[in-house]
Structure formats: structure tokens, C-alpha cells
Amino acid sequence: MSIAERLKQDLSELPDRGGPAQPLLIVRDLVKHFPIKGGLFGRSGMVQAVDGLDFEIRKGETLGIVGESGCGKSTASRLIMALLGMTRGEIIFDGEAVGSRALPLKEYRRQVQMVFQDSYASLNPRLTIEESIAFGPMVHGLARSAAIQRAHELLVAVGMAPGQFGRRFPHELSGGQRQRINIARALALRPRMLILDEPVSALDKSVEAQVLNMLVDLKDEFGLTYLFISHDLNVVQHIADRVLVMYLGRIAEIGPVDGIFDQPQHPYTQALLASRPSMDPDLRRTEPPITGDPPNPVNPPSGCRFRTRCRIAEDICAHSVPAMTTVQGLHQVACHAVEPESGHSLAPQEFAA
Amino acid sequence: MLLYIVRRVAYAIPIALLVSLVCFMLVHIAPGDPIDSIVPPDTPKEAVEQVRREYGLDKPLPVQFAVWLSHVVQGDLGRSIASRRPIAGDLMLASGKTFVLAVTAATIGFSLGVALGSLAAFFQGTWIDRLCVGFAVAGVSVPHYWLGMVMVIIFSVLLAALPAMGAGPSDWVWDWVHIRFLILPAITLSVIPAGLITRTVRGTVIEILNQDFITTLRGKGIRRSGLLLHVVKNAAPTVLAVMGLQFGYLMGGSILVESVFSWPGTGMMLNNAIFRRDIPVIQGATLVLAMFFVLLNLIVDLVQTAIDPRMRRT
Amino acid sequence: MSGDILVRARDLSIEFVSPDATVQAVNGVDFDLAEKEALCILGESGSGKSVTLRSLLRLNPPKKTVMSGSLSVCGEDMLTISDAKLNSLRGRLVSMIFQEPMTALDPVFTIGRQIAETIIRHEGISRGEADRRALDLLELVQIPSAKRRLAAYPHELSGGLRQRAMIAIALSCRPKLLLADEPTTALDATVQIQVLLLLHKLQQELGMGIIFVTHDLGVAGEIADRIAVMYAGRFVEEGPVRDVMRQPMHPYTRGLLGATVHAGMRGKRLTTIPGAPPDLSDLPPGCAFAPRCSEATRSCTADVPALHKLGPERGARCVLVEDAA
Predict the structure, then answer these.
(1) Do B213 and C88 touch (CB under 8 A)?
(2) Which residue of A has its CA nearest to C227?
């Protein structure tokens, strides 16, 4: 019997309600504005951290979210995890609205677990690692001995010997080992989805590869769905089935990984891809693909938020927000230059048949 | 920056109002009828009621507060029950004496603290550091009224070098005749702030010396003397905040030391008033000290903001 | 001493001594850097790359650091240099930029002041003249609205501008050698390439030598003339950038290249190096990589492998390389 199967016995299994066609997660018009407190006479404003996200994650797939600092990818993950209250929007998990009577928050949080970038801060320094992993199941009613037993099995699953590591404390482990513990802990409640927020960004390259391989294995073994957030395009290209590119709180482009990486449509996606160091000394550039820093999300530009750094921006881009346009299949992009009859000089014209 | 100052001053107003409300309520929170402390116990009932009307004590509390506050704003704190003299005048005189003592003690304590704290930080881990920390711990732990008495025994009784009581023959002047009286209480009072500031400065400076930008500065070839400027400006906000608070305590918290040395300041005035149950004096003195605290906090905040650009949020 | 060698390190070793343990951060490193040359020291955390770089300006904690071997920088013997000479070298002939510009800049001084400070320190010019130079420098590092930015505090700038300001400080006295400690790691992807290209351009225009420490192969590929791969305090492989990236000789370099995720690896399993780097206070005998190396033999743990030269600038510390030649 596999570990995954044995884990199912401990806690009541979570049924697949909607069937395979039902997306596991649907995010509709997700908005989060943080007020900036100005005090008695101070100016106040809004950080538009996430401003209207719409997407789905199908069962068993890995959706990668990429973007630079301030694009709202981490805020989005915390909203989905219900660690932050949303300003507006809806999150539907396997056909049920999160927080509704059919899917109370506690139940939802068992099904969706999160792994953070900072492997040290995410672990209680006073608990041994087996206690850390056993903690969640114990809260959900598993006896201590059974929970520790499960912790040992999970340690094996993440490639660490329970006898050698179970009684150690987080500070006695390396960053890569701690991140394995965090993943084991996230799996302890037998969730259906993992939100991985920059899970390998703090790791050395040789350790990064180990953890990525392990994540691929665990996904199959535990039948998981991943939301994988990263600033590293190479990592996302390696692990994701579909990719969502965020810029200043909005979706710039979303689509299958091959479409995004081989035929990026949005000028931002193109710039982001072109910004990757080449790994080939003979392909060195002299001009950067894009200039400037990502703007501050406090006062984002009007219209298309990327227009201030866009090489093909025109008047229309300042005046209207580009709509999501389907390029091909699931590949969608929010750019006036792609949107038919948008008024942009590069926009395709639709001729009457 | 100007906007920030205006805003910060505006914040101080409700705090000041709240403080005065608490002071006003002192009389009413104290057990018994406040009128009892004004009239002798065997006064006939009609006379009591007349006094009550005269003092306005028959009106509802908010009205009493408004009346009291309007007097306070005009500098009228009422009269002492014991001496029948206006409180404001006495308090002014006593505040002046306390201020002289507090400023002197602060000057001694703060300079000693900054010097020892910086020394300890720059020589972290050496015997110099341990000596300074030892002094700081001793300074904070020694009860200062006890220290005061020991000083009196040594310098006044045994050596007969300095006077043990009072603040000199006349009103305060900065001459040797008067300064002789100041030395023992000021030194006694300076020991706690010296210890606290030593600890604060040491901790803050060590933290700053460990920051990345110090490495940058060393990498730029900046000498030790040049580093000092950066350390001072980075440490100043934290150290000033502690100093402000300490100065507040020196102004208000020197009751014991002033009593030991019979220094005629607000501390002694409060001490006497408490023993005599002279509630209007307690009220007035508390109000003045509390207002001083509010003002001090305001000044510290403004100075901090002036030094540290990260605190400006306008 | 030849005029066109900026740095010459021979058997350079650096230990950090504390009452608890002695950490052997760098264990016998040899390298030269010529004028106008760009060397990239590639390694993972704990490989000793930053310690090596900082030792070139003696910026490791002075009380704990014990250096041995020989190290000369711009003609000065760094093991015996006086404080006065050291302070005159730092920031004038050799300067350094760091990974995190937010913490590497003093938060309570303006950018302009921090640039001017360096110039005044080394050239003794007036404040007004230094301010004018500071403005030129901000324009040199392509900071838009430079005049306004002179009066800005570090927290008021974006990450990319902060790092540009840091570079401006480093370049303020036109150094001959620039040391860069992961200067683009903390930056966004689109900003990272801008800063890299800027550094490359400035290096060429100003004719500086540059030593770049990074864990990122891509960064090395973008800027380096030569690469030195560092593991557990030793240079395990070195050579011209093309050779090292195309024909890595040392199993560690090969593992690192295989473990680095890049385009075209989708669906494939990543090559991994098992285990983790060794504890520097308790190094294994012989080749420090042997415990993680799939090709290790008994001879690997006997002695530290000698550097086997494959060409004038090319070499690797691995017994297998020696055997193959």
C-alpha cells in the first residue's frame, strides 16, 4: 500500500465532487485593494495589488504564475488561500463557493495547502520536524502516535530518513531540507491542491533541481493540482502546464506553456522572456529588451498598465483597458495590438464575410 | 514636512485634553466627597452647600470640567488648601527648580551614557565593553534614594564638602553658592538615565555597526571618524526617543531624590501635598507634569522625523 | 610586478576563527586578473565566493578573519597593508557593489550625499564640485531625472534605481577594479538584464577590471570573459566562459549545468547533485566534492586533487581530468 493510500485511511477522504470536467479552482473577478492609511489630514490611497483576476485551474494540472515584484502574484496566492480578505470576487473550489455552507473555510483549508519561499520562517522553531508535520493531522483529530507515524511516512516521501531527521529542529537543517519538511507538512492533511509560492527561489541550483524533481513525483503520487508562483521563467517553463503572466495586478497573458514560451503575444511577456540571460556567450546583447522598473502599484497607469514601458504603446492604450482576446485555444492575451478593431494600428481588422 | 508637523501637533491636542480630563477626575475618583477636603468636618449643612455652590461643585461634571479647564488655560490652577496661596505661582517656582535639577542630571547622565555606550559598542567583547555594561547594570539597579543617602553621608557628613539639603540661600542663580547644592542631587539623579542610555546606545550602535551599509562605507575607504557621522545619524532617532522619555521621568519622577535632599521642586511639592491630602495641588502638579510629557513626546517625534527620512510619510 | 595585472592571488586561504569552531571558508585559491578583464566566480551558498571577493578589499570581519598565502591588489600586498593605505585604496582604485542595495546604502543620507562623500574623501574637492560630479555619475548609470534623484533617500527609489545608485557610488572615483557581489540577484528579471548590460557597457567604456560573484550561470554567460567555479573554498574549474559552459570538465560543474533549469528541458527529469555542500568547519579529506560525486574513486579522498592545466587559462581540480589527459 502506498503512502498516499495509507494517508487516505487516516483522515476521511475528500470526495471529488464535480467530476473530472469541473475545474478544481475557479477565480472570478478577484480584486484586492489595500488602503494606505494617511491619518487625520493625510492623503489616503489604494494599492491596487490585485485588480480583476479571472482564471481556472483544472484538476491535475499545474498553473504557473509569473511576474515581477509588485505584480500581485503573492497577494493573489494569499487571497486564494483565504489568508487575506478579498475586496471583491469569488473563489470556487470543485464547484462550491469557498466559505459557503457546502464548503466552510476550515474544510477548504484542509484541501488547499501552501508552501512559502522562506523555509525557516514557515516552521515553528520549537517543534521537532516530526512534530511540525504531525501538528495539522492532530488538530484534525488524529491521535498523536498515528500522526507521528504519518509524519515518518511523509518524511520518507520527501526523501528524508525519519530516524535521522525526525527529532531534529528546523535550525539543524539546510534550506533544501527545510523546504522538503514544509512540503511534507503541507501534504500531511492530504490536500488536493498545493499553492507553491516561490518554493525554490531561496535554494541553491543543485538543491533546486532536487526539489523540483520531487514536486513532479509527489504530484503524481498524491494526485495533486499545483498553483506554482515564481519569478523564474525557466522553472515555470519546466514545471507548469499553463502559465499566467501578471503585470501590476492584472493578467497580461495566459495560456499553455508552449504557446506562452514559443509565441508570446503580449509585449510584456515578450520582454520578460527576452530578459532571461542567454547562457550562451555568443548570443550576448547590448540593449536590454525593456527599460525601467515595474511601476508602483499605488498609482498604476491608466488604460493598459504596461503602456509606460511598452515599445508599441499608442494613444488607445492610455484610454481603454484591453480586453482578453483569445489567440488560439486556451491562449488569451490582454493587448490592444492583438485585440481586433481595438483602434491600435497593429490590431487585426475583422472583415465582414 | 510642514504638513507633518501640523498633523503631529493636532494629534497632541486630544491627548492633552484626555490627560487634563484624567487630572480633573482625580478629585472625583478619590474616595469621599471632594467638599470634605475643603470645609472642616463640623461645618453646618447650609454652609457646606454654599461652599459647594461657590466652588461650582453643584453643577454637572461636564460643566465643572469646562469651567475648570477654562481656568487652567488662563493659568489659574486654584488655591492650595494648606497654604491658601495660588497653586500656579508655587508650581511655577517649583518647576523651575526641578527643571534645573533635571537638566543638570540629564546632561550628566546622557553624556556619560552616550560616551560609555559608544565605547562599549566600538570595543564590543573586550574588557572595556564589560566595564561599561557593568556600570550600566549597576546604574539601573542601585536604588537612587539609597545612593543619595550614601552620598550625603560621604560628602556632607564625613567630608563636609557639599551641602546635604536645600537649593541654596536665594532664588536660583548659576553661581557656585547655588551649584554646590545642586551637585549631590544631580549626580544621584543622573545614575539611572546614565545606565539606561549606556545600554540603549550600546545596543543601537552594535546593531548599526553590523549593518550592510557599514561594509559599503568601509569599502568606500571612509575612515573611522567618517563612519561616526553615519552611526550617529542612524542611532539618533532611537537614542533620542529614550532620552526624551528619561527626561520626562527626571522632571516627574524625582520625588524621592528631591525629598532626600529637600530640593524644593515639584517632586517635593507633590510629596508634601500627598501627605497633606492637598488635592488641588496634586491635581495642578500632575497636570503640569503630564503636559510636559505630552510636549516632550511631541518634540521627540518631530526631531526623529527631521533626522530619519523613512519616518516622513506625507 | 607587471603593470597590467590587477589581482594576483596565490594559495590564498581564509579562515574564520571563533571560540566554537574554525571555518575554512577559502582553501588555497590561485588566480590573476588582468586589467579590463571580467572574471566571474561561480558557486553556491557557502562555496566561499563572497569571502574571496571581500578579501580583495579586506572587508571580512577583521577580528575573526585569518588570511594566509599571498594576495596583491593593484600592487599592494593585502596581507600586510597598513590601514591608511587600505583606506586610500578602497573606493578609489578598487570598489565594490553588493547584492541588496536597500541595506547596502545608508538609509538616512541622500543618494547624492553618499556619492559626494566618496569623492570628497579621496579627491578632497569642494562639496559643490562633488555634487556636480555626483550628478554626472547618476547620468552615467542612466538614472532618469538624475537631478531630482540626487536628493532622494534610498527607500524612495525602486530596486533597479537603487542598484544603479550603488554602482554610481562605486564608480565615483573611476576605479581600476570593480568587485560585484551578486549585484543582480535581488532584482526583477526585466531589471536584472538592464543592470547587467549597464555594468558590461561601463566596464568596457571605463576600462575596468571586474570580478563578479554569482550563483547564476546565465549571469556569468552574459558578462564574464573567464569563469572560475568554486566549491567548498576551492576553485574546482576555471577557464574562458565558452569552454567552461560548453565543455565542463569537473563533475561538479557538469552537475551544476545539468541542474540549472533552462529552456528545452520540459517534461525531462532534471539532473541533480545528491546531498548538500559540506560543512566548512569539518571538510572531508581529499576532494570536497567526492561525497556527492557519482564518479568518485578511492583516490579522490586521499589527497586534494591538484589543478590540472588544460591550457593557459583552463584547468580543473579533478583526478578524472588528469586521467583523461
Answers:
(1) no
(2) A281
Number of domains into which chain C is organized:
1
With contacts defined as CB-CB under 8 Å, which chain A residues touch C260? 205, 209, 234, 279
Residue A278 neighbours by CB under 8 Å, 6+ apart: A284, A285, C218, C221, C222
What is the Cα–Cα distance from C284 to B146, expressed in whole angstroms?
62
Distance from CA of C149 to the nearest CA of B (A): 14
Q: What cell was used for C35?
A: 586589467
Residue C120 lies in a domain: no
Which residue in B218, B226, B309 is closest to C108 by CB distance? B309
Alpha carbon of A204: minimum distance to chain C alpha carbons (Å): 6
Pair A303, A321: CB distance under 8 Å: yes
In angstroms, the separation between the Cα of residue B256 and the nearest Cα of chain A is: 40
List, for residues C199-250, the tens digit of each pLDDT value. 999 999 999 999 999 998 888 888 999 999 999 999 999 999 999 998 999 9
- Interface B-C, measured as beta-carbon pairs within 8 A, has a size of 76
Same domain, residue pair B303 and B248: no
CB of C98 within 8 A of CB of C183?
yes
**Best C108, C113, C185, C211 residue to mutate vs chain B (most B CBs within 10 Å):** C108
pLDDT for A9 beyond 60: no
User: Rounded to an integer, what is the distance from CA A230 to the centroid of its chain?
Assistant: 7
Q: Which residue has the cell 467638599?
A: B35
What is the spatial distance between Cα B176 and Cα B156, in angstroms, rounded to a whole number?
A: 16
Minimum Cα–Cα distance from C60: chain B residue:
B215
Alpha helices in chain C (DSSP H): 49-55, 83-89, 101-104, 111-123, 127-140, 146-150, 159-171, 189-206, 217-223, 241-246, 251-259, 319-324
3-class DSSP state of A328: strand
Evaluate whether residue C264 is within a structural domain. yes
DSSP 8-state class, residue A309:
G
Distance of CA C291 to the CA centre of its chain: 26
Over residues B74-117, the pLDDT tens digits come to 888 777 777 778 888 888 888 888 888 999 999 999 999 999 99
Q: Please answer whether residues C122 and B219 qualify as being in contact, where contact means their C-beta atoms are separated by less than 8 angstroms.
A: no
CA distance B218 to B211: 12
What angle (nearest 5°) sits at the alpha carbon of residue A32, between those of residues A26 and A35? Answer: 170
State whether B200 and B267 are in the same domain. Answer: yes
User: From B308, which residue of chain C is nearest by alpha-carbon distance?
Assistant: C108
> What pLDDT is attached to residue B71?
84
Question: In terms of C-beta density within 10 A (0-12 exposed, 13-18 middle, 19 or more buried), how is residue B268 classed?
Answer: buried
Q: DSSP states of A127-174 as a string?
A: S-HHHHHHHHHHHTT--HHHHHHHHHHHHHHTT--HHHHTT--GGGS-
Say if C266 is an interface residue toward chain A (CB within 8 Å).
yes
Cβ count within 10 A of residue B284: 27
A166 versus B50: which is more confidently predicted?
A166
Distance separating alpha carbons of residues A307 and A268, to the nearest angstrom? 9
Same domain, B135 and B256: yes
Q: How far is it between the farthest Cα atoms of chain B?
A: 86
Residues B198 and B307 in one domain: no
Residue-range definition of the domain harbouring residue C14: 5-93+175-324
Q: What's the complex ipTM?
A: 0.89
Q: How distant, in Å, are the alpha carbons of A253, A283, C255, C283 from that of C299?
A: 54, 40, 20, 17
Q: Domain for residue B180, yes or no?
A: yes
Task: Note the residue count of chain C.
Answer: 325
Q: Are B34 and B57 in contact (CB under 8 A)?
A: yes
Q: Using an 8 Å CB-CB cutoff, list chain C residues near B220.
A: 90-91, 95, 117-118, 121, 169
Helices (H) and strands (E) in chain B, counts: 12, 0
Tally of domains within chain B: 2
Which residue from C minimizes the CA distance to A268? C190
Full domain range(s) for residue B61: 1-81+297-314
